[in-house]
Amino acid sequence: MLRGKIAIVTGSTSGIGLGIATALAAEGCDVMLNGFGDTAAIEKLRAEPSEKYGVRVGYSAADMSRPAEVRELVAETVREFGAVDILVNNAGIQHVAKIVDFPEERWDAVIAINLSAAFHASKAALPHMIARQWGRVINIASAHGLVASGEKAAYVAAKHGLVGLSKVTAIETANQGVTCNAICPGWVLTPLVQQQIEARAKALGIPVGQAREDLVREKQPMLDYTTPEKIGALAVFLCGEAASTITGAALSIDGGWVAQ
Question: What are the angstrom distances between the C-alpha of 108 and each of 5, 22, 65, 117, 159?
Answer without folding.
Answer: 34, 30, 9, 12, 14
